[in-house]
Amino acid sequence: MKYLRLVLANLGRHKLRTVLTILSVALALFLFASLRSVTTTLAATAQFGGARRLVTLNATGLVFPLPLAYGNRIKAMPGVTGLSWANWFGGRYGDGKNFFANFAVDAESYLAIYPEIVMPADQKQAFIRDRTGALIGNRLLSQFGWKLGQNVTLQGTIFPGDWTFTIDGVYTPTDPAIGDNVLIFHHDYFDERIGRAGIAGWYIVQIDDPAHGPAIAKAIDDMFRNSSSPTKTGTEREFQASFATMWGNVSFLMSTIGLAVVFAILLVTANAMMMSARERTGEIAVLKTVGFSDRLLFALVMVEAPRWDSAGPGCSIPPLTSTARASCLDSV
Amino acid sequence: MTTSTLIIGVLVAVGLMLASGLVPALRAARLPVVQALRHVE
After folding, report:
1. Model ipTM?
2. Residue of B14, B39, B41 for testing the chain A interface, max A β-carbons within 10 Å
3. Is A330's pLDDT higher than 60?
4. How far is CA A205 from CA A100, A106, A132, A216, in A?
5. With contact defined as beta carbons under 8 Å apart, do A132 and A166 qualify?
6. Which residues contact residue A108 at a Cβ distance below 8 angstroms, ignoring those fewer than 6 apart?
7. What is the helix (H) or strand (E) element at residue A137, kind and residue range?
8. For all residues of chain A together, what is the average pLDDT?
9. pTM for the complete prediction?
10. B1 and A33: CB-CB below 8 Å?
11. How far is A280 from chain B (nearest CA, A)?
12. B7 in reach of chain A (CB within 8 A)
């Protein structure tokens, strides 16, 4: 602590260099944290998924549908206690800047399989009864200022046209892993509008015991292996993770950019440290002459480094100001 | 930002501190006094 005055006195040297280095280090660390946050957010998304739910989709890819006739065959399998299906809609609201997930579901079976989606009983019944109704997460209500009973129009991107839905219910997820910014609507209405009944985007299969999951998944895939639409069944968690991997190996990309940013910080900091070290060769000699040991000087220079990294540059032992000189001489 | 991101950020900063400060600190410690005094104006 007795060298604090020396350290503080040195802070004022090369103010411009100090400010510029602080800004570059701060910006680089901000980028690093932002990139890392993208990776952790994607990882958190993949955590979503009940242990008792499997997802069956077309083995070729999510964009290829499955025949609705598969449903009854899956439901009849041992270990399967419930079944529902859904289809990605991909509509956008307004200018589309505030994206939220929206998809068509078989309402009754879907809500039975997802007990985490909670809403008042009357709203649930209203949604099930209303063919053009929609169920939304509570965040959408505050985000867009929507009201219960209001009509909202989505612009279809995959399925063009204006799609108007009535908000019949607002749900609150009991599990934070389930999004509160999702809009779901009836698969029947979806089929009617696109004029292509009898398809499902993916099946959600409820099973009796999570331990039976791998065996049931294999049985489902084996059943449809030689059909026109072979299936790929996995846990709901794998299904969520597949959305992230659709973009490619995002984690690797982010990690690589993050490392490049860290390396850039290292170069900036090392450069600033080396510059200031060269500038004070004479001062180090004076400090040694007045009694500073090699070990103490080593420690003093090392202590400056955190200031370059946390507070910025300009903090290396600079030419001694009168205050610093006094401080040095006091400490010897 | 998650706690892990915060911790990794701190570790990165500490790692940078050590990496960038080590060489100048060693140079300062090993600097011969007589030779260095020639730089004093």
Report:
1. 0.82
2. B39
3. no
4. 24, 13, 25, 10
5. yes
6. A128
7. strand A133-137
8. 81
9. 0.60
10. yes
11. 9
12. no
